[in-house]
Structure formats: structure tokens, C-alpha cells
Design brief:
This protein is of the alpha/beta class and about 210 residues long. The protein has one domain (about 5-40, about 50-205). It contains four helices and ten strands, in the order E-H-E-H-E-E-E-E-E-H-E-E-E-H. It has helices at about 15, 50-70, 115-135, 190-205, and strands at about 5, 30-35, 75, 80-85, 90, 95-100, 105-115, 140-150, 160-165, 175-180. It has a seven-stranded mixed β-sheet. Strands 2-4-5 form a three-stranded antiparallel β-sheet, with helices on one face. The protein is globular and about 45 Å long. The chain starts with a strand and ends with a helix.
């Protein structure tokens, strides 16, 4: 299994090192919950073109696949949370997470068209701290997975990561990268899960 080498954040260019949100530490989070109501500031999405459109198509495809192969997957939940010292509540929306009550494990998933440090900032410095307020580490273990269409080895990353052969079997307390090419071919592990789902579904309809 390959691994990605960790580096110091000091070695990352400023444009890559600066997230477009306020990073959060779990000790700062006053409250958090999964909202059944979407935030009021949402606007109708404009039609996208080029690379951004390709990225959205890829994300939709991955989301559909994850929902199909796992009943434990929660896609695109809106999280409402509050920070100590702030009067107003904030919003964030991870791409999704796997909630495995049997294992007591939560696997956070971020889908990107290509491997990027943005995934680390979002997963480690926003979504994970917020979710830990909802599902405390005293009862749940955490794992993070970035799913990408392609991997670029020259991307500097602040944490040692591993290449995950199956995003639904993530390693606890580690950051994994799963490469799922933007084609009809899936990884061996994911394809096997998909075949099992279709097989079980066919038997259920025929019984």
C-alpha cells in the first residue's frame, strides 16, 4: 500500500495554505446538529461549464455510487454549529459521511475531481471538529477519505496519508485517498460491493 508523505504547513504556498473558511478546533464548538432545514442563504445554482461542470458531474456520480452501495452513507448533510464567543450560528456541508453504529465509526468523505490540500482543510479543520460535537469521540472513532478522479504526486500535503482500496473500509484516525477514475471502471473493492448489492437486490425481488 502506498503512502503520501506529510510535510510542514510552512512549506505550503499561501494560496494553498489559506482555506476559504474559518478553521475550527473541536474545543471551540459550543453546539452542533444535523439540520433538516437548509440554510436560507442558498441561491439557485447557475449552470456551470468546463472544468467546474466536469467536477460537479464527477461528484454526482460518486455520490450516487456511494448511496447505492451503502445504506450507512449520509450524502451532503447540512450541519449547524456555534463557536464559543460568537453570537450567531454557522453552517457547513460535508460531501457526506458513513455512520456505522455497529463499529462505532464515522468516515468523513470529501469528493474532489483531483487530489488537493483543500480536502484536508475541510475534513480535518471543519467537518471533523463539528461532527465530533454531535457524535463524541468517547463513543465514535473517526476516519477521513478523499475520493478523487486522479491523483497528482506533486501536491504538498500536511498529513501522511494512505491509498484506500475501499473507501467504505477506511482506517481509523488516518487520512485516506481513494482514486476512482472518471470512467465506468471502478476499483476492484468498490466493484465487488456494487455486484453484491445488485445480486442481493435481484434475489429480493424474485423471492
Amino acid at each position: 500500500m502506498g503512502t503520501g508523505k506529510a510535510i510542514s504547513l510552512k512549506g505550503i504556498p499561501k494560496h494553498s495554505n489559506a482555506p476559504r473558511f474559518r478553521p475550527v478546533h473541536e474545543s471551540e464548538v459550543r453546539f452542533a446538529f444535523v439540520s433538516m432545514v437548509k440554510p436560507g442563504f442558498l441561491k439557485k445554482t447557475k449552470k456551470q461549464y468546463g472544468r467546474r461542470a466536469a467536477g460537479l458531474r464527477y461528484e454526482t456520480r460518486v455520490q450516487d455510487l456511494l448511496c447505492e452501495i451503502s445504506d450507512l452513507y449520509v450524502p451532503s448533510p447540512w450541519l449547524r454549529y456555534g463557536i464559543k464567543g460568537e453570537g450567531r450560528a454557522r453552517w457547513c456541508q460535508p460531501d457526506g459521511f458513513l455512520l456505522d453504529l455497529r463499529k462505532g465509526q464515522i468516515t468523513l468523505i470529501e469528493v474532489k475531481y483531483k487530489h488537493t490540500i483543500d480536502s484536508w482543510w475541510q475534513l480535518r479543520k471543519l467537518y471533523e471538529p463539528v461532527l465530533k460535537k454531535i457524535f463524541p469521540p468517547s463513543h465514535f472513532q473517526y476516519a477521513c477519505i478523499e475520493i478523487v478522479s486522479w491523483y497528482e504526486s506533486n501536491i504538498k500535503f500536511p498529513e501522511t496519508f494512505y491509498f484506500a482500496s475501499d473507501p467504505l473500509e477506511a482506517e481509523v484516525n488516518k487520512f485516506g485517498v481513494h482514486v476512482l477514475a472518471h470512467s465506468k471502471k471502478f476499483s476492484k473493492a468498490t466493484s465487488e460491493r456494487l455486484r453484491n448489492v445488485h445480486s442481493n437486490g435481484s434475489r429480493g425481488r424474485g423471492s
